[in-house]
Amino acid sequence: MSAERALPSFDELPKFKDFTGCAWEVWGKDDQLGTVNLLTDETVKEASKEIKTGKAIGLNWPVNFPAKPAFHRKSPTHEVLSFPHYGAVNDDVLHINTQSGTQWDGLKHFGLLHHGLFYQGTPASFFKSGDLSITSPTDIDPDLIKYGIHNWAQHGICGRGVLIDLVKYYTDLHGKLPYDPVTTHAIPLADILAAAKKQGVTFRRADILILRVGFISRYTGATQEERNDIGTREETFAGLEQSEDMKRFLWNNHFAAVASDQPALERWPPPEGVTHLHSTILGMWGMPIGEFFDLEALSKHCAETGRYTFFFSSWPLNVLGGVASPSNAAAYF
Fold first, then answer.
1. Are 215 and 181 in contact (CB under 8 A)?
2. Dist CA 287 CA 151 (whole Å)
3. Pairing of the two strands 122-123 and 185-187
4. How far is the C-alpha of 23 from the C-alpha of 10, rounded, in Å?
5. Which of 326, 331, 332 has its CA nearest to residue 153?
6. What are residue 82's DSSP bridge partners?
7. How confident is the model over 118-132, as pLDDT tens digits?
8. How far apart are CA 72 and CA 95, in angstroms?
9. How far is the CA of 153 from the CAs of 22, 55, 134, 202, 259, in angstroms?
């Protein structure tokens, strides 16, 4: 294996104004991959050794859910078109917000809000909104699609996945979850580390960190009235604490991506005066954030086999200049 490039620690990264841990120079000023750069050919080859039985598990919630998405996003619609004059032919048309369900947040989604900047210090005004019509594959304006989700789609987000099953950790410890996944609650770093230790997991550079916090299970067990309420009321969700230690953990382990089963990876909303973790993870590091991952079948298999690491593959939609995408993710044992 070729020598790995040395990366700065979190505390060695420069500050940007009121933000610690600025990684804009780590991959070069023209970079559009962020921490996906860690998923090299060598890394993927090594991660493929996780495949021992061939068992494959999809991590994607049906695109139909939630029927009433949070954050005022468009509900998914699915129309089947029949053509009886042909005898036996159907098409279908799907309309979704790319972040209404299982998703990757891309580099154009969330930046440093009060500075009006995205990854690499790109001003929000740089990006065109509205219709991005691209008709010719041989005449594409690179500025129009800059930092789009197509960069990850064409590279792939593939490597070793690691599940930290906080639902199992807490229920084994307390008999139940000590929080409601649809209320504001901070998951502390200490609990993630304790769960990892209990599972016998040690992290490796370029791991894809996946956290089961409890939303999908909570939503499935709710009444339809409760489900509709979750999508229409002011958003409150359990998620990662917004602390310097959490940032230090995520960066110093050099995860290639981080995902959970929650609608927002981080505690939502953050406490007053505390900046969003999204701003650091996406805006400062270029690290993919996955949300709404369906981890129920995965967690069951991990518990049954005692294996919490696996080969992970994800191929986002190849949308030039896209903001986000369904994950098309799977775990392989």
1. yes
2. 13
3. unpaired
4. 9
5. 326
6. 90
7. 999 999 999 999 999
8. 15
9. 25, 24, 17, 28, 17
Per-residue pLDDT tens digits of the chain, which is 333 residues long: 456 789 999 999 999 999 999 999 999 999 999 999 999 999 999 999 999 999 999 999 999 999 999 999 999 999 999 999 999 999 999 999 999 999 999 999 999 999 999 999 999 999 999 999 999 999 999 999 999 999 999 999 999 999 999 999 999 999 999 999 999 999 999 999 999 999 999 999 999 999 999 999 999 999 999 999 998 999 999 999 999 999 999 999 999 999 999 999 999 999 999 999 999 999 999 999 999 999 999 999 999 999 999 999 999 999 999 999 999 999 999
H/E element, 305: helix 296-305
**Which residues are within 8 A (CB) of 233 and not within 5 positions of it... i.e. 6 or more apart?**
none
Can you tell me whether residue 118 is helix, strand or coil?
strand
Structure tokens at 56: 């494959």
Structure tokens at 309: 């690491």
Contacts of 179 (CB under 8 A, 6+ apart): 185, 238
Long-range pairs, 168-174, Cβ under 8 A, ≥24 = 168/195, 168/212, 168/299, 168/303, 169/194, 169/195, 169/198, 172/198
| Consecutive H or E run containing 162 | strand 159-165
44 burial (CB, 10 Å; 0-12 / 13-18 / 19+) is middle
C-alpha separations of 67 from 62, 77, 291, 292, 329 in Å = 10, 9, 16, 13, 21
DSSP for 260-298? Answer: ESSSSSB-BSPPTTPPPHHIIIIIIT---EEESB--HHH
Query: For 76, left (φ over 0), alpha (ψ -120 to 50), or beta?
Result: beta
- Is pTM, for the whole model, over 0.90? yes
DSSP three-state, residue 141: coil
* CA distance linking residue 263 with residue 239, whole number of Å: 9
